[in-house]
Input
Amino acid sequence: MPQDLPAPVRRNLDLGHGNFLLELHAPAHAAEVSPGQFFMLGVEGTDILLRRPFSVCGARDTFADAPQDAIQILYRVVGKGTALMAALRAGATVQALGPLGHGFHPPDPGTLPLFVAGGIGSAPFPALAKALRGHARVPWMVYGARTAADLPLLDWFRDHCERVEVTTEDGSAGRKGRVTAPLEEILSAASPGSLQLYACGPNPMLAVVARLARAHGMPCDLSLEAPMACGFGVCLGCVVPCHAPDGGTRFERVCVEGPILRAERLAW
Amino acid sequence: MVTDLAVDVGGGLRLKNPVLTASGTFGYGLEFRPFLDLSALGGLVTKGLSPRPRRGTPPPRIAETPSGMLNAIGLQNVGVDAFLAEKLPELRAHDTAVVANVFGETVAEYVEVCAKLDGAAGLAAVELNVSCPNVACGGMVFGQDPVALAEVTRACRRATRLPLWVKLSPNVTDIREFARAAEGEGADAVSLVNTFVGMAVDVERRRPVLHNVSGGLSGPAIRPLAVWMTWQVYRTVKIPIIGIGGILTGHDALEFLLAGASAVQVGTANFIRPDAAVRVVREIEAYLDRHGIATVRELTGALQDGVPR
Output
């Protein structure tokens, strides 16, 4: 059951290049949240009206140096709302509504989890990696960004994934190009149904990942982002077109039916 | 002192307090059960109900603007039949006034929905949406022509025995003309205002932010405009006014009451804080206590230096 609670800031780590890791003291949220779910965060006393949605990056034991009653949010400064968040210091309080939406589907037994992340789209994967531990194979990851500085928590992923393939559009880290190149190689070398894809990033990237997953017969969860005012299904601002049972399409809410949707549901 | 928060909003309908939630910001009410006690509200107004389910507008549908937001949802809703079968039975369990917001593309469609709602147990009133700016047919088309507004009000008046509210559009030269038309055709109350038509531009991509190009502006940005319209309408008609426009707090609600509203609707605030409407009730109550006012009904139009109507 989601709750709307004040959450004191424990720390707000500057990871460089506009990327931050916000840690909140939020015992009830930490106990409830599943990987892939999200929170609506509001910074009070500002001229920003609406809260902003953020995937949970970590909770409980995700990060070794954090307490059990904390949650972590990985974010990138992209506008006014996130700029205000970046100015938060320990002791400040944010209003946190959640956990909201549906989390990631567990992988089928024996399949290899494969994370596909575009830049700040890596945000939900630490929590997922930790949750899979002991219940699934150690994941692989394909992690792409424009430039080396846009790969937050790369070292963490190298420690917690069996294999990490890095791409940058400018060639400043890993292979020059986009995530789709190493992804296609991995998919081509695997038999259909042997991988469980989990993808988060810009919509054009997700659309390509969804197409490749289908072509290679791999189940694929997409973590979607959309502008939303409420986060719990009433503003209807965050819809995406999805296939309907009658053969047509209909608009589904990212906040309630998502933010994790099976790739085949989307009618892009 | 026991504070009396009850208000009369026409057609014999008395609300336990003057705070409702506005159509389009509160779903069908049930979505808010995790966050507040629906019975603490004076009432709730449903998402606009059309004769058949509506798909709505393609995204992007919303954008934040200074002290406000633009939306173009296109009245996506489950349709009146699904509301009656699936939503209303659950709402009946809560001791609050349920008001059905009604939308049609033609007069006949408004009448069709009103007629279906007329016999339903557990409905307190019907609110006509003649002011949605985001649909090609119906909606604001009726709200921008006093003759058309009179026609749809008259037809719906005949189709329902429930108290009838008409929700007015602010996108007109003189809103008083429209309030008069609604009153003249038997409306029990007018609610005002719906959203103002606006537009935001993504300058990097040189595109409108919203797929629909324009959207309805809501939030604190419109509050002074809405308070002024409430005041104008208060001096024009005798039927109760339900004030709407950017109410976030009890203070904001009191502005509308003092300008002439008998009740208010909290809208965009529901997105920001899901318990916002209940907080508004408590803050109005605290104001009455602080000023030693026995009943909230005394506040309607009670500006000290106001021009009496």
Remarks:
- Chain B has one domain: 7-57+75-199+219-299.
- Chain B touches chain A at residues 25-27, 31-32, 34-35, 55-56, 58-64, 66-69, 71, 73, 76, 219-220, 268, 270-275 (CB under 8 Å).
